[in-house]
Amino acid sequence: MEDGPTREEGVAVVADGTDRTSGAELPFADPAGRPTLRTVAELAGVHVSTVSRVLNHVGGPGVRPASRTTAERIRRIAERVGYSPNPHATGLRTSRSRLVGVLVPRLVDIVLATIYEGIEEATATYGFSTFVANTGDDPTAQRRRTEMVLARRVDGVIFGDAYVDGRFLDEVAGRGAPFVLVSRRAGDYPSVTCDDVLGGRLAAEHLLALGHRDLAVIAGEPYASTGIDRTAGFLAACDAAGVHVPGSRVVHSRFDTEGGRAAMSRVLADGAAPTAVFVVNDFAAIGAMGVLRDAGLVVGRDVAVVGFNDVPLAGSLPVGLTTVRSPMHEMGVRAAHLLMRRLGGEEVASERLVPVLVPRASTLGDRGA
Amino acid sequence: MEDGPTREEGVAVVADGTDRTSGAELPFADPAGRPTLRTVAELAGVHVSTVSRVLNHVGGPGVRPASRTTAERIRRIAERVGYSPNPHATGLRTSRSRLVGVLVPRLVDIVLATIYEGIEEATATYGFSTFVANTGDDPTAQRRRTEMVLARRVDGVIFGDAYVDGRFLDEVAGRGAPFVLVSRRAGDYPSVTCDDVLGGRLAAEHLLALGHRDLAVIAGEPYASTGIDRTAGFLAACDAAGVHVPGSRVVHSRFDTEGGRAAMSRVLADGAAPTAVFVVNDFAAIGAMGVLRDAGLVVGRDVAVVGFNDVPLAGSLPVGLTTVRSPMHEMGVRAAHLLMRRLGGEEVASERLVPVLVPRASTLGDRGA
DNA sequence: CTGAAAGCGCTTACAG
DNA sequence: CTGAAAGCGCTTACAG
Where would I find the HTH lacI-type domain in this sequence (chains A, B) (predicted)? Predict the structure, then answer.
């Protein structure tokens, strides 16, 4: 690195007031020059075990880790030298790492990225850090990435890429690593999801109320509970209203823009355009809207489109996208809490968060602009 | 967890053929029942140090870690019991963690998410894992998250959220953690960026060639080299062509859709609309397009808009967005390699990757549809 | 070619 | 209230 002289001379005092480089080398520092427990012990004139007890505030009501004055001295010194425990040593000793692995289909999918932000935020409040890995919904990658994460000795795992059959998860459960699911449910494993069935119903009721009877569904991947449940909820509501959606009008798709394009093209190739389309993902919905436009149809006037998730962009599109808002960030936060409770040995139950329909121009036309 | 009986009875053989749970407990397993080096040594009838040497293929040309047959036996046993080294033990012993910290403004920004995917992918090929943390471009968060990452004893850090002044980085450099920058440059620290000056120039040349003379720039945050350099390149090219862009027509903005909306509104409030706008980020460009539309202007006919990055959505928009494509994934990959070389003790030089202009309807009108 | 020992930096019973 | 010891699972000179 092209260090200038200023940096070469060292930064005497960093912003938090900790004096990390002044004076002589710290006694009993680690190879990188960082203070160890021994450093603090030596400076305080006590045994390392005392320092450890004090800094971990061991001791319940009435039980003190050390005398008040000793404890204070130790804490002051630890602060002054900028002591932070070596997580490798702690991890080795306690066999807990305060690490959690998070597996997602793709982090560039803003839905998953938002969920992950919630996870990261919430786990951090427990002093945990997270590894994320993309699996691209590919079983081989899921396996390999899970191995990698377990090899890192994470305390737990959050899967955001579960296949609804849960077979892979059965294997993981056999390995003894606690985990929870987020976004997608599978088997009987604890999960935090959006109430996708309800979401699908909200979409259907909205379209039915607007008078639509000629409907199509772009349903997502067949292995993801999100698409499955949203579609099921939609179709059930149609059924209840006596509106039949033919099987040829329910097509699977990838969850991205390109997937929506391909699926919408297939629907159009199949005959006359429906008057309304429910797409189980906003990005796929954007792709579908593109195809409709290219076919000379005006979204919101000729064809209504409902998406799912309410990504930030949905409201900023030229034709605002009516969509079912799912609490993405909140799902991440809750999943993190759920895992923490599992790690504490609690039995936990799945949580289903309530979605809300957000009507915009893509179903309301000018009224929704 | 609601384990069914099948899972309770254990999964005898997992998919990779490793027999992890059959027979009696492994000898000298760790508290979680995982095999240790000692497990393998005992099973192979050799000393742990021999196992360690074999599994780490110690030994250069001519130097063997063990006899061929012993080595093979050890490797077979390690494979059979599913041995994977405890990274805490290795980390404690070697004071290297094979961990890298990655700081980004926000992971929900697809630009950063794409860069991060490249980083993650490339570091994984070195056997490294990554921690990501959001800092929201907030100096306090940058400090706190960096502390957190260093406390985890990462071997190195990649900053995707550098302030161009580099003052915070000067402090970090004083702490002895090797790092590189990605996306944004700062000071003389090694970085992998897009050639943003060139990108700005490409945008200007495109608009000038189309005959535009009445220009505006939505310039991003003043502390980010991306916005600064893109704007500088744009203005320099205008200057060279004898076209003056008044200072009032160059406005700072956040990098997201909302930021683009706000900035575009300010430009419009300031007087007559320009005939062309260069926005240094695609999402901000989408926001700007929304404001133009709301003002009754047709993008691509009344006003030309050029964005930056070419996010996947840019081409799928109702009015395709002309934009300067930056190699986001590639930047992440290169930054990872650069850090790895730094960790190997190499002196490394910054890399600037070449952007390409992608013309679409937002500047070409119907011709670009 | 292989073994034995030391030690990385912690935590946690166990004494006193 | 505090100290001393053991040991977590590795790696790495050092012997032989």
Answer: 35-94
Asked whether residue A100, judged by its CB, lies under 7 Å from any atom of the DNA or RNA strand D, the reply is no
Is A157 within 8 Å of A177 (Cβ atoms)?
Answer: yes
Asked if residue B14 and residue B81 are part of one domain, the reply reads yes
| Spatial distance from the CA of B35 to the C1' of C7 (Å) | 22
Q: Does B124 touch chain A (CB under 8 A)?
A: yes
Chain A residue with minimum CA distance to B114: A108
- Distance, in Å, from the CA atom of B291 to the CA atom of B294, rounded to the nearest integer, reads 5
Tell me the C-alpha distance between B268 and B266, whole Å.
5
How crowded is residue A250: how many other Cβ atoms within 10 Å of its Cβ?
A: 17
Residues 57-116 of A with CB under 7 A from strand C: 58, 83, 85-86, 89-90, 92-94
- Residue A306, pLDDT > 50, answer yes
| 3-class state of residue A146 by DSSP | helix
Integer Cα distance of A256 and A279 in angstroms? 11
Distances (CA, A) of A53 to A47, A49, A127, A339, A344: 10, 6, 18, 27, 22
Q: Tell whether the model's pLDDT for residue B82 goes beyond 70.
A: yes
> Buried b vs exposed e over A108-135: b needs ≥16 C-beta within 10 Å?
bbbbbbbbbbbbbbbbbeeebbbbbbbb
From A287's Cα to the closest Cα of chain B, the distance in A is 7
Q: By C-alpha distance, which of A328, A132, A334 is closest to B104?
A: A132
Rg (C-alpha) for chain B, rounded Å, is 27
Residues of chain A positioned with their CB less than 8 A from the CB of B153 = 86-88
Per-residue model confidence (pLDDT) at position B24: 58
Average pLDDT in chain A:
90
CATH of residue A145 = 3.40.50.2300
Could you tell me if A336 and A364 lie in one domain?
no
User: Tokens 């893109």 correspond to what residue?
Assistant: B230
Q: Give yes or no for CB of B56 within 7 Å of strand C.
A: no
Do the domain assignments include residue B90?
Answer: no
- What pLDDT does residue B9 have? 29
Range of lowest pLDDT (A63-67, A73-77, B34-38): A63-67
Give the minimum alpha-carbon distance from B240 to chain A in angstroms, rounded to a whole number.
Answer: 33
pLDDT band at B15 (very low <50, low <70, confident <90, very high): very low
pLDDT band at residue A222, thresholds of 50, 70 and 90?
A: very high
Nearest DNA or RNA nucleotide to B63 (CA to C1') = C1
Please report the pLDDT score of residue A58 as a whole number. Answer: 62
The reply to whether residue A286 touches residue B153, judged by beta carbons under 8 angstroms, is: no
CATH number at residue A51: 1.10.260.40
Average pLDDT over residues A119-130: 95
Which residue of chain A comes nearest to B115, CA vs CA? A108
Q: Find the Cα–Cα–Cα–Cα dihedral B60, B64, B68, B70, rounded to 10°.
A: -130
Q: Is A62 found in the same domain as A174? A: no
Q: Write out the residue range of the structural domain in which residue B113 sits.
A: 98-194+329-353
Same domain, B364 and B246: yes
